[in-house]
TrEMBL record:
Source organism of this protein record: Methylorubrum extorquens
Keyword Translocase among record annotations: no
Residues in DUF1254 domain copies: 67-198
Alphabetical list of Gene3D superfamilies matching this protein: Domain of unknown function DUF1214, C-terminal domain, Domain of unknown function DUF1254
Record's protein name: DUF1254 domain-containing protein
Residue ranges, annotated region (Disordered): 436-455
Signal peptide: 1-21
Superkingdom as given in the UniProt entry: Bacteria
Chain ranges of the DUF1214 domain: 341-433
Record has Lipid metabolism as a keyword: no
Keywords in alphabetical order: Signal
């Protein structure tokens, strides 16, 4: 296998000199542009969030730059638009690290055994490369080292585990379980215990020279969905060197249409026929993503490490399209369906068929097509096994009602209000048990409420 050090030595040869787009034929350029567009799709969706949170200090989502947590100590509401399909169970804490100059140390406090939390770390490819929390490292206090692909220093004492990232910029979407509004002070106390320190600060050493300043262009959706996606991709590849051994040949192909780490993208200098081919390839790529999205309903295979995703870039794109920053399936299982709130419907869980969760489960309803929480007078956006007042049948079964119309006073405790039109329901199971991961357990189907059962 080619070593990453050898690859690093070849980078200059691979991408030196002027943009090599003229080497590609028109037909080759279109096919390569399609492949590159699909490859870049998740990365650019991630970049949109990164730019708002780290670069644009005027954005409402700004977290304060690198190396700072921004905590949300309450459940999401319809007004929160940072991400699509936000969960209403675990308030978020966001942070980003620049690993170029030195590693960072992430410290967590001792978290009460009954409280679930997870630190999900993702790279610029959107791979979930590291997990800390209740399932993986436990609820004890500890210090964890995060290092970039080029770091080769020694690990100091007091570090429980080292996580190596493929990219020099990484982010976390950390979730801390919340059990009702009265639990907010407890969540805040846990969040205050999350700490980020450069390695030099952790060791009380003189810090190294800072990394060079970087130019992060503003995110423009129209550019990201056109041939100009190449400009964004080139910026991101600069922070993803050396390439994974499995992608060396892919990067050589991409270089033939002007793609490479840090390369300038100036389409005015391209042959017009070649530029039209690249435009067509980008359009082909988006069409392929749209077609795949129309037939992708199971999100379980969409989130994980590079090894789990097996360089299946359309699958990676689906993860970004269906729910950016979804957890790997070992951490949380996702399922669901699309319904119509104009029709009062229900889901029936037999007593022995409740979601098999090690920690807890929930059902959250979203509007379509924006996939945000639905504003309703009940201010109820989800239900789950931690919901107060949930009514079970005498035999231990559970019926959940979904629709714009109330199911009646006797059933309202089990009702998730919906818009008059289409909606999406997402089931989340935290700490899924083997019967769920194996496919043995299935989410019950949505059934219409019989007229005799309506109020």
């Amino acid at each position: 296998m080619i070593s990453r050090l050898l690859i690093l030595g070849l980078i200059g040869t691979l991408f030196s000199g002027a943009v090599r787009a003229q080497q590609a034929s028109v037909g080759e350029a279109r096919a390569t542009a399609k492949e590159a567009y699909v490859y870049a799709y998740a990365m650019l969706e991630n970049y949109q969030t990164f730019h708002k949170q780290v670069v644009d200090d005027k954005a409402s989502e700004y977290v304060g730059g690198f190396g700072r947590f921004r905590h949300y100590a309450q459940a999401f509401t319809p007004e929160n638009r940072d991400v699509v399909t936000p969960n209403n169970d675990t308030p978020y804490s966001w942070a980003w690290l620049d690993l170029r100059a030195e590693p960072w140390v992430v410290s967590v406090p001792a978290v009460p055994d009954e409280r679930y939390y997870v630190m999900q770390w993702f790279d610029l490819f959107t791979h979930n490369f590291a997990y800390m929390g209740s399932r993986t490292t436990g609820n004890g206090a500890g210090n964890y080292l995060f290092a970039g692909p080029r770091w080769n220093g020694s690990v100091p004492e007091g570090i429980r585990q080292v996580f190596r990232a493929e990219t020099e910029i990484v982010g976390t979407l950390t979730r801390t379980a919340l059990v009702g509004p009265e639990d907010v002070p407890n969540v805040r106390a846990v969040q205050r215990g999350y700490r980020l320190q450069p390695l030099s600060e952790f060791e009380a050493f003189r810090p190294p020279a800072p990394a060079p300043s970087a130019n992060f262009p503003a995110y423009d959706r129209s550019k990201a969905r056109s041939e100009d996606f190449i400009g964004y991709l080139n910026v991101l590849l600069h922070f993803a060197q050396p390439p994974d051994p499995s992608e060396v040949d892919l990067m050589r192909r991409f270089a033939r249409i002007g793609i490479g780490p840090g390369l300038p993208w100036d389409k005015s200098k391209l042959d017009p026929a070649l530029l039209e081919a690249i435009k067509a390839g980008a359009s082909d790529g988006q069409a392929a993503i749209d077609a795949q999205a129309a037939k992708t309903f199971d999100s379980g295979p969409l989130f994980g490490t590079r090894a789990f995703l097996e360089n299946d870039y359309i699958r990676r794109a689906m993860g970004a399209d269906k729910g950016l920053y979804g957890n790997s399936r070992e951490e949380a299982w996702y399922g669901g369906f699309v319904g119509n709130g104009a029709k009062l419907s229900m889901m029936r869980f037999a007593a022995d068929q409740l979601p098999p969760a090690r920690f807890f489960w929930s059902l959250t309803l979203y509007t379509l097509p924006d996939r945000g929480l639905y504003a309703n007078t009940e201010k109820r956006y989800s239900l789950g096994d931690r919901s107060k007042g949930l009514v079970y049948g005498p035999d231990g079964s559970l019926t959940v009602y979904l629709g714009h119309q109330s199911p009646g006073p006797s059933h309202e405790a089990n009702w998730i209000p919906a818009p008059q039109g289409p909606y999406s329901l997402v089931a989340r199971v935290y700490g899924p048990k083997p019967e769920l991961l194996s496919g043995q357990w299935k989410l019950p189907p949505l059934e219409p409420v019989a007229s005799s059962e309506r109020p």
